[in-house]
Design the sequence.
């Protein structure tokens, strides 16, 4: 409990650090909201016109004044107004987040359902042909870029079979579950493919370690069946690195899968933050990054808690 | 590997079929045009927006006083008729009495006056303001008549007024400060929904003075990847799409059910030299670069030959045959001689900047130019940047050379006064001006006789190609792809999608 409170107490400090870095970094990049809106035509503006637009976008003050204003708003739960959407940043983020969360969960599900059994299977057939097959498949999975797989899937489905999930408007899960799943399954397979490959490799090597441990030998010598040795005794102990990897990957996915969202035209968090950066929508960039950092910290915390659940020998917060 | 991937794909499809997705292309409602583009509009204020997609969306909702047709002739929009006074200092319009805003109010001369006053107000930040500075005052003798009093004869003004950046908006909305948050125009469609970077929903404006539209509405989806747009067209989810990438566009004709529309546009691909930086300060060095570049090869390699080599003027009725311009036929020997005469027989090093993906051909253009200039000893370092970073450097004139895709206009003065006049707002970008260019531009602005105007701008074009501050390369095509059952779309050199107002979907 103390551990949990201590971890939670650090959250605001990390978030403030992240917000300062993002705030300064985005302003150090050349170009601003005015050039993002007008492009090269921004050169036609008179100084007065430019000043009027800067005031409109809230970039007419020094950065520390802007930051102070933003921080004050944040303390009141206000992340500011997006200049692109003309709406509160938090509303826009929360509108996009369910898709990203669903996509991340679905990808993780695919990765674990495919990856863990494949890794266990390969470990139990160490150095046999089937092990080699799994390892080669995992290597291909890890080294195939997302966009190649996504384009391959889209091309094969549209050119070969004349079908494609509806693109453009996204159907939320609670409105049209079937259509929603239809729109997310291919992106989830695309993301889950490489994710599953990593899970396979790490499950295999963790299982190999565990299978040579004394307690596994003891279990075997006591006459436990092969199935029971693998699934009851060995696997739970091999899961810790899998949980670590899944936690990190899941954290990344919660930040949005920019390329996959771009190709499948999914309005998720990844595309939102990319568009916000390209359009220099400062409030939205800050809000998104803060939100992503917060998610990452939560996922990390959950991973740490999962360690303790998986292995009772681990006592969190003790040296 | 192929087998493995195929298995993966097949299992993916099986899963997809299981959950019912592969089911199918959207059932297109006969009267709604499903459209897609890769880049979305960036805002709704017609006076402030300059992004291509924003203009294409807004010209379906708003109307200017006049517009240009496919042959770049001025035709009526809100105004039925117009006339310049004999001294060219007064421009009068008669408005269409049937013109109505989508809020039901008639379009009156007061709205026209308020719209132009808003554009001219520096606080607005209207990008097109520079084109309207000759307007001294605006009279509204009656609700259907507007008279613009000009401080000097300004023939290109009428063309500038055809732009959606000069759209007429309701005076009441200007007073309420809601331009940009609500889109209330007098155009063929009403904007019912705009979900930035995702979707736009437009419905037909039944009160449009231009008559009935061919479809009941248009739904525009933002599909950022053009390969995905093509895939969605194959499966008939999308009826009509805007394409930028020539690589994707050339795949369209291979699909039996699709049709590719392409038309040369006014925008031009150019290698901008910076004549304020050594050694581009030397006329002979700039001319050597011009002679060393094979424009056709740049076009063929970077854009698969999809375009046309161009001189500075891209307006078909004004353009000179590029073959007659200085060094449009590649001459490496002449280029080497010019370099030697300028004292750079051993060449020099320079950096060329370009924007990633804007246009999609930028990096390839820079690479071809790099290899061509290497033949005369010029070592080019290519620096590709994110668009906004590029725009920032470009506006400051902070480059040795830049590959650019610059927008064109239907009138040469409006197109180039920003660069090639002494008072041009973008002189800092052009970094070159001489008396001949300035005086030719001023003469062209005041001349009302079309033939004499054409002769003035032909001289301008010949001169600027010779002094070579920039190396004009080619104009590309604007591409739209459509299902073959979509009828009535007319592609134009300005890239406007206005003719979607009369498009129909055949059953």
Sequence:
């Amino acid at each position: 409990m103390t551990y949990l409170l201590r971890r939670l107490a650090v959250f605001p400090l990390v978030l403030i650090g992240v917000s300062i870095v993002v705030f300064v970094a985005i302003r150090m990049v050349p170009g601003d909201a005015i050039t993002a809106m007008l492009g090269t035509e921004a050169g036609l503006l008179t100084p007065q016109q430019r000043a009027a637009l800067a005031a409109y976008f809230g970039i007419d003050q020094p950065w520390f004044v802007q930051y102070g204003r933003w921080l004050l708003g944040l303390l009141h739960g206000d992340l500011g107004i997006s200049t692109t959407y003309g709406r509160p940043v938090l509303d826009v983020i929360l509108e996009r987040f369910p898709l990203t969360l669903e996509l991340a969960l679905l990808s993780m599900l695919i990765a674990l359902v495919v990856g863990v059994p494949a890794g266990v299977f390969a470990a139990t057939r160490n150095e046999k042909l089937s092990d080699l097959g799994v390892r080669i498949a995992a290597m291909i999975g890890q080294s195939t870029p997302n966009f190649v797989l996504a384009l391959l899937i889209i091309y094969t489905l549209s050119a070969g079979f004349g079908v494609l999930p509806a693109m453009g408007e996204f159907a939320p899960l609670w409105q049209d579950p079937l259509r929603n799943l239809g729109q997310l399954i291919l992106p989830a397979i695309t993301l889950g493919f490489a994710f599953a490959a990593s899970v396979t490799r790490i499950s295999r090597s963790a299982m190999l370690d565990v299978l040579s441990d004394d307690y596994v030998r003891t279990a075997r010598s006591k006459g436990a069946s092969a199935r029971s040795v693998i699934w009851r005794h060995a696997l739970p102990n091999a899961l810790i690195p899998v949980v670590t990897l899944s936690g990190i990957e899941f954290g990344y996915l919660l930040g949005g899968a920019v390329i996959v969202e771009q190709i499948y035209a999914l309005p998720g968090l990844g595309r939102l933050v990319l568009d916000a950066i390209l359009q220099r929508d400062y409030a939205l960039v800050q809000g998104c990054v803060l939100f992503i950092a917060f998610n990452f910290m939560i996922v990390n915390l959950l991973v740490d808690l999962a360690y303790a659940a998986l292995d009772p020998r681990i006592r969190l917060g003790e040296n | 590997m192929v087998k493995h991937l195929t298995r993966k794909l097949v299992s993916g499809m099986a899963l997809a079929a299981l959950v019912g997705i592969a089911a199918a292309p959207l059932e297109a409602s006969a009267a709604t045009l499903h459209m897609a583009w890769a880049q979305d509009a960036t805002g709704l204020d017609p006076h402030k927006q300059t992004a291509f997609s924003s203009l294409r969306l807004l010209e379906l909702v708003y109307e200017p006083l006049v517009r240009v047709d496919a042959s770049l002739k001025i035709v009526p929009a809100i105004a039925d008729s117009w006339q310049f006074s004999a001294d060219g200092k007064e421009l009068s319009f008669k408005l269409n009495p049937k013109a109505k805003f989508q809020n039901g109010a008639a379009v009156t001369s007061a709205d026209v006056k308020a719209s132009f006053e808003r554009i001219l107000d520096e606080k607005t930040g209207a990008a097109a303001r520079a084109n309207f500075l000759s307007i001294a005052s605006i009279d509204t003798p009656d609700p259907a008549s507007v008279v613009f009093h000009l401080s000097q004869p300004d023939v290109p003004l009428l063309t500038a007024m055809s732009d959606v950046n000069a759209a007429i908006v309701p005076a009441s909305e200007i007073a309420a400060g809601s331009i940009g948050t609500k889109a209330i125009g007098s155009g063929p469609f009403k904007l019912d929904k705009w979900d930035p970077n995702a979707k736009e929903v437009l419905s037909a404006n039944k009160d449009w003075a231009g008559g009935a539209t061919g479809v009941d509405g248009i739904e525009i989806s933002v599909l950022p990847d053009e390969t995905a747009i093509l895939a969605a067209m194959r499966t008939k989810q999308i009826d009509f799409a805007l394409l930028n990438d020539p690589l994707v566009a050339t795949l369209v004709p291979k699909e039996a059910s699709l049709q590719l529309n392409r038309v040369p546009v006014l925008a031009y691909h150019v290698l901008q030299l910076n004549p304020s930086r050594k050694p581009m300060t030397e006329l002979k060095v700039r001319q050597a670069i011009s002679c060393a570049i094979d424009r056709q090869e740049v076009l063929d390699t970077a854009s698969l030959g999809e375009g046309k080599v161009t001189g500075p003027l891209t307006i078909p009725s004004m353009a000179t045959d590029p073959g007659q311009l200085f060094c449009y036929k590649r001459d490496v020997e002449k280029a080497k001689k010019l370099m030697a005469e300028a004292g750079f027989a051993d060449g020099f090093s320079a950096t060329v900047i370009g924007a990633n993906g804007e246009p999609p051909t930028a990096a390839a253009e820079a690479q071809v130019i790099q290899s061509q200039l290497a033949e005369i000893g010029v070592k080019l370092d290519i620096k590709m940047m994110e668009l906004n970073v590029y725009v920032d450097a470009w506006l400051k004139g902070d480059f040795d050379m830049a590959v650019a895709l610059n927008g064109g206009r239907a009138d040469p003065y409006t197109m180039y006064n920003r660069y090639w006049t002494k008072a041009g707002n973008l002189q800092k970008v052009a970094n070159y001006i001489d008396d001949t260019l300035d005086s030719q531009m001023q003469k062209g602005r005041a001349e009302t006789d079309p033939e004499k105007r054409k002769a003035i701008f032909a001289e301008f074009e010949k001169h600027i190609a010779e002094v070579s501050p920039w190396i004009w390369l080619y104009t590309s095509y604007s591409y739209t792809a459509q299902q073959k059952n979509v009828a009535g779309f007319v592609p134009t050199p300005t890239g406007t999608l206005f003719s979607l107002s009369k498009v129909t979907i055949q059953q």
